[in-house]
Amino acid sequence: MALGAQVTVFDITEDKRQDALRLGAIKYVNVSRPAELQGLNNSLNMIINTIPSGHDPLVYLKMIRLGGEMAVLGLPPTAETPKISTSALPNVPLVKVYVYGSNTGSVSQIQAMMDYSVEHGIYPDVEVIPVRCSDLHS
Hints:
about 20% helix; alpha/beta; 4 helices
């Protein structure tokens, strides 16, 4: 939100809906509910894909506007790596849509992100789970 983004969060359960909305997302989409995917085609400028398992990337590519981007950051197991069938591409308006992968970033990029977060009061939610020594030896 600090950069003017309107964030839509996608997940496969309801577990994170309240947290996502509380943290500023304008929309939460449970992809396990097909009705929630309705009306999203050609609606997003950028998708940061962190899906760590097999999925159909075309579902998300259809949501990207002309000139939009999808950064693929999720690393599913090799056997589950998403594939795009070339025979399906004519059904997707991929004119000037950019898809790319990324590493985590350089030390200077990570530091810049941390500095930005501090400057704008963006902090993680942390859950502390106490551990007893007896738990470690069971």
